[in-house]
Amino acid sequence: MMAATPETEIVAGIGNDYKYGFHDEENYVFKSERGLSAEVVAAISERKNEPDWMRKFRLKSLEYFMARPLPEWGGDLSQIDFENIYYYIKPTAEQANTWEDLPADIKNTWDRLGIPEAERKFLAGVGAQYESEVVYHKLQEKLESQGVIFKDMDSGLREHEELVKQYFGTIIPQNDNKFAALNSAVWSGGSFIYVPPGVSIEMPLQAYFRINAENMGQFERTLIIVDEGAYVHYVEGCTAPIYTTDSLHSAVVEIIVKEGGRCRYTTIQNWSTNVYNLVTKRAVAYKDATMEWVDGNLGSKLTMKYPAIWLLGERAHGEVLSIAFANQGQHQDAGGKAVHVAPKTTSTITSKSISKNGGRASYRGLLEVAKGAEGAKSKVVCDALILDEDSRTDTYPYIRIDENNVDIGHEATVSKIGEEQLFYLMSRGLSEAEAAAMIVSGFVEPITKELPLEYAVEMNRLIQLQMEGSVG
Amino acid sequence: MVSAGTPTGACVLIMALLELKNLHVALEDGTEIVKGVDLAVDTNETHAIMGPNGSGKSTLAYALMGHPAYEISEGEILLDGEDMTEMEADERAQKGLFLAFQYPHAVPGVTVTSFLRSAINAIRKAKAGADDPIPIPEFRQELMAAMERLKVPREMASRYLNEGFSGGEKKRVEILQMAMLKPTIAVLDETDSGLDIDALKIVAGGVKELVGPNMGAVVITHYQRILNYIEPDYVHVFVDGRIVEEGGPELAHKLEAEGYEAFMPAVAAGGGE
Q1: What is the pLDDT of residues A387-408, one digit of tens each?
Q2: How far A170 CA lies from chain B's nearest CA (Å)?
Q3: Which residues does chain A have within 8 Å of residue B65's beta carbon, measured at their own beta carbons?
């Protein structure tokens, strides 16, 4: 319906009347029309001046997306109105590479997210996604001198096309699932990281994400290549203001960890509770490599996310640590996948979920051991904490073992906060809500202790917020 | 209670710090467990409540602290003159009451240190009416000193509260909590059970040290053993939900020698059962 409207008018017509949270006036250079079509996808590619192969990749992905039905497992996706979403918005014309170069309103948003402080403290580099594109990236000189590439995905494609072309879409094929296909068609932003052999990045690389326009999907695409013997810890955190209509976030993250390398990818997502968060994350780990996913899901209306690790080389090790907090009206369908292909590979999946006020948390996981992966070891632990009678937890562990010589363990527990435990803490002066929050924080501590300090603090604070006024 | 005239002739209202007046406690199904207890405890005093298993001692302790499963069906609890009968456990704690649990609960994932700091800050907040967190250096110093005195190994501070603790460790950490939270009245529910003699001495020493101008204690126990180290000022014999005999420390020795049987018939006769 807005197809005929010139861009300038679209830009003029939005951004003046938001009243929710901190919300900067939108200042778009380009915004695609609502809805999805080959024209929209081609326009995105054209806007970005992409090479022909990427344009074709996008268009083919769109076909796959259109052809695939909505998944019928997991959560309820029927309310997503794909025609009412902006698939691409470019907020500013130029990429900024220093803090000073950033437009004031964007800086303002980030000030409130605490980025400068974070940077002062220990960030090695900051990439943040504002609307659908990363506009700010700063790399410490040290990283550059080490040959590390840390770019937004669009710049990565422009500046390192051969490297991107070699790996893009190889870990998560464009037709992997409906939402991976969607992302492949309309992706924008995300991070591109390459760590050269033997380089160990001590400080976590961080990116902040935020959705800042109504009805706008966010489709960032991240590709991380950790070369032999290298190490990186990548951290993404998200905050989002509240919107009145549903938003869609559908990211794809592909990671390659080569021989002896190690990658840790940490996410804390706190989308507002109208966001569909449908993310495909997959890593491959070669010989003696280690891949770790640390995943905290607090916000969103529905999250479907199962970080996966393919253990392709001998003695590769994979870990998934995941926390899900499902509050009123939320469904967290999260878990992890470990696929053992090579001998002596090991994996652990630890999942902790909390459901409250009618929220629903589901653990969905896959453990697969292929024929020939002799001596594979895996342990899956899922613990659920249910805070009241209205809430729900489910466990869907899928296990396929085609090898005899393996060591597989699966444990699942469901617990409630005990009256005696609450009373014990209250007898020390803590209110019922404080006591419950303390029990919940303790419950997820095995995972929060793996987070960078700042995130651990934020995680606990978020849990306390979730717990406020919850018990009575 | 109103005293007789003092030598100067003035009439003074003397009120103990903690007062139980005709306290009755019932379970949710209505079964009465505590059947009318009067007790007055002041700072500088140690009271022992001694009774056989099943006499309702622990119920009394829980009800004092405000456990929701035990209903105060009659009577009242006053702390410093304030009626706390209807208060929740947290409010009672904030007012200065403390219960050392017979079976302290584990709180996985929460370290002794972070738990203590949260509890201290909750109490400080209640007292100040606003956030008033204890400065971290001050907290650390106090904690280290208290752990030293109570011979709690340093590494306990970073362990998860009561998780995987031995019986003795749990009891010591209960006393550590008491030392850190600085209640005005501490109730110790069978703190001696499951302790070897060395641990018992340390725990008893910790209690003794804290009883003084700022704190009074109620030691609930089955056995006389702990009283050798704590030396109560008053002993109350508790049988079938009632205090059936009161006296000084000598009463504990009598109990040790003769057992509770001597008091059972008295209950039957006196209580009309």
Answers
A1: 999 999 999 999 999 999 999 9
A2: 39
A3: 423, 427
DSSP code of A73? Answer: S
**Cβ A367 vs Cβ A335: under 8 Å:** no
Contact yes or no for A398/A365 (Cβ under 8 A): yes
Boundaries of domain holding A121:
7-305
State the pTM of this model. Answer: 0.79
- The answer to whether residue A381 sits within a structural domain is no
Handedness of CA B7, B9, B15, B17 (dihedral sign): negative
| Contact between chains at A438 and B115 (C-beta distance less than 8 A) | yes
The reply to whether A170 falls in a domain is yes
Closest CA to A298 of A341, A219, A237: A237
Q: Which residues of B touch A428 (CB under 8 A)?
A: 93, 115, 119, 122, 177, 181
The pLDDT tens digits for B243-262 are: 999 999 999 888 888 888 87
Identify the architecture of domain B18-103+183-271 in CATH. Answer: 3-Layer(aba) Sandwich (3.40)
Domain stop point among A251, A270, A305:
A305
Q: Which value, in Å, is the radius of gyration of the alpha carbons in chain A? A: 22
Whole-number pLDDT of residue B199: 85
Distance from CA of B240 to the nearest CA of A (A): 24
Give chain B's mean pLDDT.
Answer: 89
Mutation target vs A (from B87, B118, B159; most A CBs, 10 A cutoff): B118
**Both A145 and A268 in a single domain?**
yes
Share the mean pLDDT of chain A. 81
- Is A341 among the domain residues? no
Domain boundary among A273, A305, A337: A305
Give the residue from chain A lying closest to B125, CA to CA.
A429
Q: Report whether pLDDT(A190) > 70.
A: yes
Report if residue A273 sits inside a domain: yes
> Do A261 and A230 form a contact (C-beta atoms < 8 A)?
yes
Q: Looking at the predicted structure, is the pLDDT value of residue A84 above 60?
A: yes
What pLDDT does residue A464 have?
A: 77
Domain identity same for A298 and A424: no
The full set of domain ranges for chain B reads 18-103+183-271
Looking at the structure of chain A, the number of domains it has is 2
pLDDT tens column, B23-75? 999 999 999 999 999 999 999 999 999 999 899 999 999 999 999 999 999 99
Chain B residues whose beta carbon lies within 8 Å of the beta carbon of residue A441: 109-110
What percent of chain A is predicted at pLDDT more than 70? 76
């749990």: which residue's tokens? B170
Among residues B21, B2, B55, the alpha carbon closest in space to that of B244 is found at: B55
Do the Cβ atoms of A432 and B88 come within 8 Å?
Answer: yes
* pLDDT of A57 strictly over 80: yes
A400 vs chain B: nearest CA distance in angstroms?
A: 32
A427·B90 Cβ contact <8 A: yes
Terminal-to-terminal C-alpha distance of chain A: 49
Name the residue in chain B with its Cα closest to that of A447.
B109
Q: Nearest by CB to A441, which of B65, B94, B110?
A: B110
List of chain B residues whose C-beta atoms are within 8 Å of the C-beta of residue A423? 65, 67-68, 89
> Complex ipTM above 0.90?
yes
Instruction: Tell me the chain A residues in contact with residue B98 when contact means C-beta distances shorter than 8 Å.
Output: 427
Task: For residue B116, give both structure tokens.
Answer: 């203590």
| Per-residue pLDDT, A129 | 42
Q: Are A110 and A119 in contact (CB under 8 A)?
A: no
pLDDT at A72 over 60: yes
> From the CB of residue A12, how many other CB atoms can be counted at a distance below 10 Å?
12
The confidence band for A215, taking pLDDT boundaries of 50, 70 and 90, is very low
* Contact check, Cβ <8 Å, A430/B181: no
